[in-house]
Amino acid sequence: MFCVLDFVGQYLTDCYLEETDYVEKKNQGYVGKLQEYVKQKELSTRDTGKLNAWVKKQQLLFIRVYKDEIQVFNSEFPEQEIWEEEIAADNYAWESYYKVEFSDGMAEVTITGAYIYQFYNYVMIAEMILSFFLFLVLVLLGIRRKMDYIRTLCNEIQILEGGSLEHKITVKGKDELSELAEGLDSMRLSFGSLIRQEAEMVQENQRIVTEMSHDLRTPVTSIMLYTEILKKGKYKSDVQFKEYLDKIDLNAHRMKQLTDHLFEYSLIAGEGEIELEEPEQYEVMFYDFFSETCSFLEQKGFQVVFHVDWVDCVVQISTDYVMRILDNVASNIVKYADPSAPVKISSVEEGHMVGFSFENKVQRLEEKPESTGIGIQNMKNMMQKMGGRSVAEKEGERFKLVLLFPCLER
């Protein structure tokens, strides 16, 4: 803006000076002042001290005085007695000569003033003032916009403080404030996700406790019933006595199994971040685990169909967790699977994850064993802590469990 104003100001100033007699008017004005000063002080052409004093008061002004075509005063050389040198008048065409009456006669005076330079300075000062006010207006408008944005962020933070985490933080611009707003919005999403996870965990815990309480009630009731019968001696024979003892023992083992599952669930849920072992080849990590699992299932009378393609990649796991997961899988197969149908173990790949699937047929029993699903939940929790995923599917008599582990590099 200053460059534009300076160009326009220079042009308009040049036009004004060319089309008007600005310099002539200024010269005549100073000639009038000089004539009044000479008349008041009754100066002669040789009173150079007083003439020089008057020139200094005017500022940016130079005069030369000629008498009888001889230069008698030059304000550029105030201390010299020029009339003794008898310097003749130059009579330049571009100079104007003005008559001034001194006490010793009429003299001619030429005046040279820095009027144009001063005029250009005034124009430049005006340009700088206008540019500064423009700068000030733009800065104030920018500050006002930022202050409005800060007030908006303050209001939105108050909304978040009130508990409304669904309200999105406004992100505008690409400066430090917008980065702060993005950080606040990310924190809002993370906090909301954390609250949802905590709510889901509480809900899951309540469900587990409710189902466990219901499942524990059945064997406890049976134990109390058969214990009461035995205490009162209401059995017909030793055979019936032994049958009641066996039922008490069976229900006690069921209770122990349920409480073990509950203890394992609380233990896993209470653990923080686990430290995974050093990365290792996929086949090296899991080959021995599956060898033991397949041998165990075959000893229990199951036919195992093992079809795994060992992918050339590196995984990072917790050996303790993997052992507990496979033990849980094997015990569930023994407990729920139909021995007449084969157990299929195959490899699975999904994106950057690799793993295994276990598929079996669910056996049909008149008396179904108690199942709270806490074992599946334990496996899911352990897989999540290792960065993996566990998916259980059941369609009719077919049950399928998929375990996926993150592949670090291929």
From TrEMBL:
<dbReference type="InterPro" id="IPR005467">
    <property type="entry name" value="His_kinase_dom"/>
</dbReference>
<feature type="domain" description="Histidine kinase">
    <location>
        <begin position="211"/>
        <end position="409"/>
    </location>
</feature>
<protein>
    <recommendedName>
        <fullName>histidine kinase</fullName>
        <ecNumber>2.7.13.3</ecNumber>
    </recommendedName>
</protein>
<feature type="domain" description="HAMP">
    <location>
        <begin position="144"/>
        <end position="196"/>
    </location>
</feature>
<keyword id="KW-0547">Nucleotide-binding</keyword>
<dbReference type="Pfam" id="PF00512">
    <property type="entry name" value="HisKA"/>
</dbReference>
<keyword id="KW-0418">Kinase</keyword>
<dbReference type="InterPro" id="IPR003661">
    <property type="entry name" value="HisK_dim/P_dom"/>
</dbReference>
<keyword id="KW-0808">Transferase</keyword>
<dbReference type="InterPro" id="IPR050398">
    <property type="entry name" value="HssS/ArlS-like"/>
</dbReference>
<feature type="transmembrane region" description="Helical">
    <location>
        <begin position="119"/>
        <end position="143"/>
    </location>
</feature>
<keyword id="KW-0812">Transmembrane</keyword>
<keyword id="KW-0597">Phosphoprotein</keyword>
<dbReference type="InterPro" id="IPR036097">
    <property type="entry name" value="HisK_dim/P_sf"/>
</dbReference>
<keyword id="KW-1133">Transmembrane helix</keyword>
<dbReference type="InterPro" id="IPR036890">
    <property type="entry name" value="HATPase_C_sf"/>
</dbReference>
<keyword id="KW-0472">Membrane</keyword>
<keyword id="KW-1003">Cell membrane</keyword>
<keyword id="KW-0067">ATP-binding</keyword>
<dbReference type="InterPro" id="IPR003660">
    <property type="entry name" value="HAMP_dom"/>
</dbReference>
<keyword id="KW-0902">Two-component regulatory system</keyword>
<dbReference type="GO" id="GO:0016301">
    <property type="term" value="F:kinase activity"/>
</dbReference>
